[in-house]
Write a structure and sequence with these properties.
It is built from 15 helices and 13 strands. The strands form two sheets. Strands 3-2-1-4-5-6-7 form a seven-stranded parallel beta sheet, sandwiched between helices. The protein has a six-stranded parallel beta sheet with strand order 10-9-8-11-12-13, with helices on both faces. Helix 2 packs parallel to helix 3. It is α/β, with parallel strands linked by helices and 411 residues long. Strand 6, helix 6 and strand 7 form a beta-alpha-beta unit.
Length: 411
């Protein structure tokens, strides 16, 4: 194993262990967020050991050593959310985390989602502060599963989450979750992520024209765009249900869904097939994040139809930067980032989503106001230098937290 890097004065750089129970790297929410955290940590003078699942493509990053757990069952895919495969890989991750903490010296552990539970248990005993990277509320996630939705299991999950809040040195959560953390554990130090959107390259407009040709979309046809996976919580079925009402008033409209397959689209397969055959609906599989500026530049309205959840989807940061009107459902996940004239918030049902899209397409003045509000917020609040500075400040705060107190009991 290589010796630790040194700063210009010859002293070793402080090292952080980042534990992410995810495939890495993949072009989807949490891995993209983890990548930004890694780059911000190294920009702040830390070296990083990254521990992840065995899947995902190699992504060399300066200052980052990547450890993957073994893959004895030769998994080729881990679905989003709870699964037996994830449980197996989580168990391997815990063992590998323990070994790394035993063999190396870290100034902090950055633990994503469920990895924070064993991280607190192991690291606190070595007086190492743990930063809990809370991408979502675990009890809320588990509640969607039939078994874990039972009341006694939900009570236990909530108690475990409360224990985690009270024992982490710092909780950094997705926008929208801080209020939940404060209600659950008022004394917990909590901060919210504001992730950095992908900048549009000079070729974005040309890429948009090329994509229209590839998808057989006329140059003057209005486009409503959704990006992301097709999991139930994303509300893609609501967006599909809105298409007929929008198309009845705007016959040339095209709905483009990027990030899934036709088979993965929720709702009636016959209805989806009709929309595809008419050309009203276009479904594009998962594409690299670097391709997204071209798709965003093609759109006349961007849609986030998420139907439940308290954590802001990563896509909304790219949406804000795109300079395109946004229609989003009026739920906790969206309000902290998309309120105050930065988007049109509507009820989470198909009819309301259709009404919102029509308001944007039929009212140029309102569309312009939404476009300007979104872009202004992105320019003022979603800058890379600010993100790096925030991560640096939070890590200093975490390292100053007392680590000699006993672990708080589960209660």
């Amino acid at each position: 194993m290589s010796a630790p890097r040194a700063d210009v004065d010859g002293s070793p750089r402080p090292r952080v262990l980042v534990v992410a129970p995810q495939p890495f790297f993949e072009d989807r929410g949490t891995p993209i967020a983890v990548r930004q955290v890694l780059e911000a940590l190294t920009a702040n003078g830390y070296d990083v050991d990254l521990l992840t699942f065995p899947l995902g493509r190699a992504l060399p990053l300066p200052g980052v050593r990547h450890y993957r757990v073994g893959n004895p069952f030769r998994f080729t895919h881990v679905p989003i959310g709870f699964s037996v495969r994830k449980l197996v890989l989580d168990a391997l991750l815990v063992h590998a985390m323990h070994r790394l903490l035993r063999d190396h010296r870290y100034v902090a552990v950055h633990a994503v989602e469920e990895a924070a539970f064993p991280a607190v248990w192991f690291a606190r005993r070595q007086r190492i502060p743990v930063v809990y990277d809370m991408q979502s509320s675990l009890p809320e996630q588990l509640a969607q599963n039939r078994l874990f939705g039972l009341r006694p299991v939900r009570w236990m999950a909530a108690a475990c989450e409360r224990w985690l809040f009270r024992n982490a040195a710092l909780v950094v959560c997705s926008a929208g979750l801080a209020a939940h953390v404060r209600r659950t554990a008022p004394a917990t130090v909590v901060r919210e992520w504001q992730f950095v959107p992908l900048p549009a390259p000079p070729s974005a407009k040309a890429d948009a024209s090329r994509l229209r040709r590839e998808l057989d979309i006329p140059a003057n046809a209005p486009v409503a765009l959704y990006t992301g996976n097709f999991e139930t919580y994303q509300g893609v079925d609501l967006l599909i249900g809105a298409i007929a009402d929008v198309a009845a008033r705007v016959p040339g409209v095209r709905f483009v869904l990027v990030g899934g397959t036709r088979e993965g689209v929720p709702g009636s397969s016959d209805h989806v097939a009709q929309l595809l055959n008419r050309g009203t609906l276009k479904i594009v599989g998962r594409r690299p994040r670097e391709d997204m500026p071209g798709f965003l530049a093609m759109a006349d309205v961007l849609v986030s139809p998420r139907c439940y959840g308290d954590n802001a989807p990563l896509k909304v940061f790219d949406y804000l930067h795109a300079g395109c009107p946004i229609v989003a459902t009026d739920i906790v996940a969206h309000r902290p980032i998309l309120a105050d004239g930065r988007s049109l918030l509507v009820a989470p049902d198909a009819a309301s989503i259709a009404t919102g899209i029509l308001r944007v397409l039929e009212n140029p003045a309102e569309a312009l106001a939404l476009r300007e509000g979104a872009r202004r917020y992105a320019d003022e609040h979603l800058r890379w230098d600010d993100f790096v500075a925030a991560v640096g400040a939070w890590y200093l705060e975490a390292q100053r937290a007392p680590t000699n107190r006993r672990i708080v009991a589960l209660a």
